C-alpha cells in the first residue's frame, strides 16, 4: 500500500508524456492547456508520494536541483512577460515536461518501474507511428489540424508540422536502437526492429531538416556500444566519424557538393534547397539574437517569443528573405529560444540540466540512450527547437533524461537484477 502513491505518480507521468506527444505535440490550443493541467496533477501526486516516503527521492541531487532551478526560473519569468496568460500556459507546459522527468528520476527506482517507463515511451512512439501509418492510407484523426498538403507524401503523425514529427523521432530512434544493442534478445526484439524500420520509413516522408539527426540518433548507439567494449576502439571510431563529418560538411558546402545534393536530395525526401534553407534560418535566428540582446540576463519571459517578434521585424529587402513577412513563432534554435525567453540564466540552467546526467556513470539503458540522444538533439537544436518549442518532443527527451540521471550505486534492489550491459 505504501507504494501506491509512487505507482500513481509514475502512471500520471506516463499519461502526461503520452498526452504531450499525441495531443498534436501540445504546441497550442487544447493540447497545451491539457498538458499544463496534467503536469500540475502529476507534480501534486509526486509531492504526496514524497511526503509518504518522508523525503524527496533522488539519486543525483545536483541534477534534481538543476532541474528544479530551471523550472523555478521559468516560473519567475512569467512575472516579467507582458502576455501573462501565455506565460502561464507555457510555464505549465514546462512544469509537465520537467515535472515528469523529475518524477521518473525519483520514483522509477526499481528495474520493473524503469522498464515500465521506457516501455511507455516506446508505446507512445509506436502510437505516433500508427497515426503516421493511417495518414499513409489517407485516414485522418477527427479534431486534428493538419499541415497543408499533409498526407501519404508528407507525414505529420500526431503533430501538425512534419518537421516537428521528425524531431520526435530523434529520441525515439535513439531509444529503439540502444534497446536493440544493449538488451539481451527476447520476444520484444523483432518488435523493436520493426518499429525502428517503420520509424525511418515515416521519417523519410517528412521532408524535414531533422532527417539527418534521426539517422545520427540511430547510428550513435553503435559508437556507445564500442566505447563500452573497447574505449580505445571507441575513441578511434569517434575520431574517424568526426573527421568524416568534417570532410563531408566541407564537400557539401562546395559547389560540387551542392550540385550532388541538388541531384540526390529527392532520394532522401528533401525538397528544400540548402541556399533557401540557410537564408531562411539566418533570417529567423536574427530574431532570437536581437531578442536576447534586448534582455540578456532575464529574457523577455517564457511564452513571449511570438508576441515580441514583431518588435524585431526587418524589411524584406534588407535581409533577402520573406521570413519578415510571416509569423515568426520560435527561434529555430534551442539555445536561442531559451536565451530569448529566459535569458542567460535560463539557457545556462537548461544546458546544465541536459549535461549533468552524463556524470551518472550508469550502465542502464536510459543512461546509454542519453549518450546517443543528446548529441543528435543538440545537432538538430542548432537549426530547430524541438526541445524548447515543441512540448511533445521535449517531454519524451526529458523523460529519458530523468532516467539517465539516476546514479546506479543507490538502488540496492538492483543487486538481484544485473544492469543492462553490452553483450
TrEMBL record:
Limits of the O-antigen ligase-related domain: 214-350
Locations listed in the record: Membrane
Transmembrane segments: 33-50, 62-81, 87-104, 116-136, 164-182, 187-204, 210-227, 234-253, 338-358, 365-383, 389-405
Superkingdom of the source species: Bacteria
Membrane-related topology note: Multi-pass membrane protein
Pfam family, one: Wzy_C
Keyword line: Membrane, Transmembrane, Transmembrane helix
Keyword Membrane applies: yes
InterPro entries: O-antigen_ligase-rel_domated, WaaL-like
PANTHER family: LIPOPOLYSACCHARIDE BIOSYNTHESIS PROTEIN PA4999-RELATED, TEICHURONIC ACID BIOSYNTHESIS PROTEIN TUAE
Name of this protein: O-antigen ligase-related domain-containing protein
Amino acid at each position: 500500500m505504501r507504494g501506491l502513491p509512487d505507482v500513481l505518480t509514475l502512471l500520471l507521468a506516463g499519461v502526461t508524456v503520452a498526452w504531450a506527444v499525441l495531443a498534436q505535440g501540445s504546441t497550442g490550443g487544447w493540447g497545451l492547456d491539457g498538458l499544463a493541467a496534467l503536469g500540475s496533477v502529476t507534480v501534486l501526486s509526486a509531492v504526496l508520494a514524497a511526503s509518504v516516503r518522508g523525503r524527496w527521492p533522488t539519486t543525483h541531487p545536483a541534477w534534481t536541483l538543476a532541474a528544479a532551478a530551471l523550472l523555478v526560473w521559468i516560473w519567475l519569468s512569467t512575472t516579467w512577460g507582458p502576455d501573462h496568460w501565455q506565460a502561464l500556459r507555457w510555464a505549465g507546459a514546462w512544469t509537465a515536461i520537467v515535472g515528469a522527468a523529475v518524477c521518473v528520476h525519483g520514483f522509477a527506482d526499481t528495474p520493473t518501474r524503469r522498464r515500465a517507463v521506457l516501455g511507455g515511451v516506446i508505446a507512445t512512439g509506436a502510437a505516433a507511428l500508427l497515426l503516421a501509418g493511417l495518414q499513409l492510407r489517407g485516414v485522418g484523426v477527427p479534431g486534428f489540424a493538419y499541415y497543408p498538403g499533409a498526407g501519404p507524401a508528407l507525414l505529420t503523425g500526431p503533430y501538425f508540422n512534419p518537421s516537428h514529427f521528425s524531431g520526435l523521432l530523434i529520441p525515439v530512434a535513439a531509444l529503439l536502437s540502444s534497446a536493440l544493442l544493449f538488451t539481451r534478445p527476447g520476444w520484444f526484439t523483432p518488435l523493436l526492429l520493426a518499429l525502428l524500420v517503420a520509424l525511418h520509413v515515416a521519417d523519410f516522408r517528412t521532408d524535414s531538416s531533422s532527417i539527418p539527426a534521426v539517422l545520427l540518433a540511430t547510428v550513435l548507439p553503435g559508437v556507445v556500444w564500442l566505447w563500452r567494449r573497447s574505449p580505445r576502439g571507441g575513441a578511434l571510431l569517434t575520431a574517424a566519424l568526426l573527421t568524416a563529418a568534417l570532410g563531408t560538411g566541407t564537400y557539401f558546402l562546395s559547389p560540387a557538393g551542392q550540385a550532388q545534393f541538388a541531384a540526390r536530395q529527392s532520394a532522401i525526401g528533401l525538397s528544400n534547397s540548402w541556399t533557401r534553407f540557410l537564408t531562411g534560418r539566418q533570417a529567423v535566428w536574427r530574431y532570437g539574437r536581437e531578442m536576447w540582446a534586448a534582455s540578456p540576463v532575464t529574457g523577455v519571459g517564457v511564452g513571449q517569443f511570438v508576441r515580441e517578434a514583431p518588435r524585431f521585424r526587418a524589411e524584406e529587402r534588407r535581409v533577402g528573405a520573406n521570413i519578415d513577412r510571416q509569423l515568426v513563432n520560435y527561434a529555430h534554435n534551442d539555445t536561442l529560444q531559451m536565451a530569448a525567453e529566459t535569458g542567460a540564466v535560463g539557457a545556462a540552467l537548461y544546458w546544465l540540466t541536459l549535461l549533468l546526467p552524463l556524470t551518472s556513470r550508469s550502465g542502464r539503458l536510459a543512461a546509454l540512450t542519453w549518450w546517443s540522444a543528446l548529441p543528435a538533439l543538440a545537432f538538430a537544436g542548432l537549426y530547430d527547437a524541438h526541445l524548447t518549442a515543441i512540448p511533445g518532443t521535449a517531454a519524451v527527451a526529458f523523460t529519458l533524461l530523468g532516467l539517465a540521471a539516476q546514479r546506479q550505486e543507490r538502488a540496492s534492489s538492483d543487486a538481484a537484477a544485473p544492469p543492462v550491459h553490452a553483450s
